[in-house]
């Protein structure tokens, strides 16, 4: 993502400034932000003024500065409005309502009605989830600054189209337009790999690091890349489809129909298959589904079950060899591993994986391989989807553009509350409709 | 590579402007450049003025513009100075002298003295090559604007250090500093993957496309990535080490000591090995070395030799599966394949490889896979190395910075030739020493 105009630079610097405020455990001064971003104090002060004016930030006390004027601290104005993050998965959806500080206010999970779902089923379920969240919290639609929606597969982001789904036999479904007919709010569509990566950039390892690869290991497997602090999308937003990279020529059959894919080894199904190879009669295989097998393996390994221990060892080897390829290609500062496999198998898996990566990385003196588990709390997909909505809100001309002056004038005419943080529904303008 | 300041933008726009002049088959107008780059006419005019002032560009005739004022055409001022590109390979070096239009003026190839070369051997050989080129063309050192040096392996570019060599048992050799003691010119060190990619960006597929992956297939195998028109280097300049990505878990032994690496299948040695598997007694295996085996396979396949045809078919399958992984991860606009294998096996290899990539790309409707052979003429490594020197010259503060004014004044005082293109040694300032 190359910035080519002064406006692009301003946008990027605005994001960086705000990311620092989100990343900090407590309110921060403009000086702190300047130090952390490398921007000049004047630039930070200018951006902070704009973000205060838009009520995205608010002042939150002062810090001493060794005899000089006390420095004002800045925090996110959590009450400025709400954001929605929606994670559409194979068997159901999770919808979460966030304040502007990206704190979860409420969650709802709804199953999808059947195995072979139609677009209308997904739309109905998402709308039901959003309506439940807003009703339960008494939130008027006008307070929703935006909703991010994650749908698996190939997404044409700008058009808001689900181009291909790995689960359902649909193609080129204009999901954003279908949702827009029912939900009066700005909508942003992307896929779970991109959402997880953005969540990591704002709230995980990416808070301190600009070049990282984020690998997700669950039923599906994939990667997201942040390059110089920006999400890398590729020519058609399908970069990071790592799960069907060949790890073992003529190896295991993958559900995609090909052989030897990474996903056939290091997904939930891959772990179950490895266990079946290690111990075809293992009682752990009787768990209700493949995710449950992974959980059972984790528990059994902790108790020393040899088949479970061996399953983790083999999985670490597969994963290490596959991740070494990502290290060699991208040369990231850090590689972050998340998803059910990483969460459940955790250090026993990661420790052995680190060893395998070090052994298999490019033929050069092994350097420190920084491989760590994701620290993003809760569901990174819905959090990342909400972050897309936050980014969209920050990109919106109405938030910082010429409309601002008109809004300021109208507000001043009303009550003179212009400088008081804490948005009320009456003050929030209906957001511009994107879909 | 994110531009963060107005100066960065100016630098990037200067590169883009100049790339368009280099890419055009004939002199181009400012209007053409504006149309091709997306920059405003005013910006292009401004940058062109600066490049004319620095004598990097020159005016080259006019074009009619439908009744209005005729438009001046711009061309690279080839005589502004010379550049050197040096390709250090396993058994010898190639050094090339270029004019500023990157036309080869003269080449020299010198063998390295022995198999296990020392840094001093490389330095001596490079210095000998440079001295031969300058002597044969009567070029004073002061006319050399810069020399790019490509050395295989891991290069710490900013420090000019060869950190790791795949061929020689050296580590952390300060090659640039060693060369600088002997050569009085700005020096730029990088590796052949990066050099080939930069050559492709300026003179190949990258002339029209900003997102591409460039794969090199010869004794070694690797990839280079251009992202949004900028070379992607990774955290420590080692991105693109694709040759030792695992293609076949527990597969062929690789010379790196691991098993199943891409390089064990689609390098010159890999092709020879495949032929030996197809037909252990093939007379083609008696060629003098592995490069000669590849050439023999190409000739024999053209004549219908079944073992050669089968060798290409298998190689295409290995390559297709491996390249599908790159397509899935990077989602480039185009993937360019170069190096001896692509040059010799050419369309018979590429056609079957395209089919294999399409079959093995991510589980989504197969889209048009743009896979093409490199069109960079001659040796892309030495050309790319010289391009690094060109980029360094364009980046040099002395070329466009405050020194410029002083140089202009001195020049005006001398002869008043300020506006006449065509540099003479007397006019060229000794370049600032970088090493």
Describe the main β-sheet of chain A briefly.
5 strands, mixed
Beta-strand percentage of chain A?
Answer: 15-25%
Read across the widest sheet of chain A, the strand sequence of neighbours is 6-5-4-7-11
3D shape of chain A: globular
What is the N-to-C succession of helices and strands of chain A? HEHHEEEEEHEEEEHEHEEEHHHHEHEHHH
Could you give the count of β-strands of chain A? 16
Individual helix count of chain A: 14
Can you tell me the CATH architecture of the largest domain in chain A? 2-Layer Sandwich
Number of self-contained structural domains of chain A: 3
List keywords for this structure.
homodimer; about 425 residues; alpha/beta; Arc Repressor Mutant, subunit A; Nucleotidyltransferase, domain 5
Give the helices and strands, then pairings.
The structure is a homodimer.
Chain A: H1 6-23, E1 28-29, H2 30-37, H3 41-53, E2 57-63, E3 71-76, E4 82-88, E5 92-99, E6 104-111, H4 119-137, E7 144-150, E8 154-156, E9 161-164, E10 171-173, H5 175-180, E11 187-190, H6 192-203, E12 212-217, E13 221-227, E14 230-232, H7 263-266, H8 268-278, H9 290-302, H10 306-330, E15 334-338, H11 340-360, E16 371-373, H12 380-395, H13 397-400, H14 403-414
Parallel strand pairs in A: 4-7, 7-11, 12-15, 15-16
Antiparallel strand pairs in A: 1-3, 2-3, 4-5, 5-6, 8-9, 9-10, 12-13, 13-14
Helix pairs in contact in A: 1-2, 1-3, 2-3, 6-12, 8-9, 8-10, 9-10, 9-11, 10-11
């Amino acid at each position: 993502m190359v910035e080519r105009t002064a406006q692009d630079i301003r946008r990027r610097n605005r994001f960086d400034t705000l990311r620092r405020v989100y990343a900090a455990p407590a309110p921060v001064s403009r000086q702190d932000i300047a130090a952390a971003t490398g921007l000049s104090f004047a630039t930070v002060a200018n951006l902070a003024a704009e973000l205060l004016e838009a009520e995205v930030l608010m002042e939150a006390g002062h810090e001493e500065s060794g005899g000089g004027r006390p420095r004002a601290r800045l925090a996110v104005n959590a009450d400025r409005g709400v954001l929605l993050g929606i994670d559409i998965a194979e068997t159901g959806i999770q919808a979460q309502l966030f304040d502007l500080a990206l704190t979860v206010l409420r969650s709802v999970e709804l199953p999808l009605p059947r195995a072979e779902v139609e677009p209308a089923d997904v739309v109905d379920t998402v709308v039901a989830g959003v309506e439940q969240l807003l009703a339960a919290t008494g939130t008027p639609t006008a307070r929703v600054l935006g909703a991010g929606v994650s749908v698996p597969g190939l997404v044409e982001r700008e058009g808001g189209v689900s181009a291909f789904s790995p689960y359902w036999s649909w193609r080129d479904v204009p999901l954003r337009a279908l949702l827009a007919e029912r939900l009066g709010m700005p909508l942003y569509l992307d896929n779970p790999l991109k959402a997880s990566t953005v969540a990591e950039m704002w709230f995980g390892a990416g808070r301190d690091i600009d070049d990282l690869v984020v690998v997700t290991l669950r039923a599906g497997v994939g990667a997201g890349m942040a390059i110089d602090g920006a999400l890398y999308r590729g020519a058609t937003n399908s970069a990071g489809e790592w799960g069907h990279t060949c790890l073992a020529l003529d190896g295991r059959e993958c559900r995609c129909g090909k052989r030897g894919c990474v996903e056939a080894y290091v997904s939930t199904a891959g772990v179950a298959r490895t266990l079946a190879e290690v111990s075809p009669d293992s009682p752990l295989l009787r768990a209700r589904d493949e995710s449950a097998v992974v959980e059972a393996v984790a528990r059994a390994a902790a108790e020393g079950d040899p088949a479970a221990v061996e399953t983790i060892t083999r999985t670490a080897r597969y994963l290490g060899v596959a991740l070494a390829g990502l290290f060699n290609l991208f040369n990231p500062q850090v590689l972050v591993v998340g998803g059910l496999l990483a969460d459940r198998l955790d250090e026993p898996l990661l420790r052995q994986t680190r060893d395998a990566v070090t052994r298999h990385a490019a033929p050069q003196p092994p350097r420190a391989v920084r491989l760590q588990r994701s620290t993003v709390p809760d569901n990174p997909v819905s959090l990342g989807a909400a972050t897309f909505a936050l980014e969209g809100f920050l990109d919106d001309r109405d938030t910082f553009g010429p409309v601002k002056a008109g809004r300021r004038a109208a507000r001043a005419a009303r009550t003179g509350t212009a400088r008081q943080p804490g948005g009320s529904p009456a003050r929030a303008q209906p957001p511009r409709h994107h879909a």
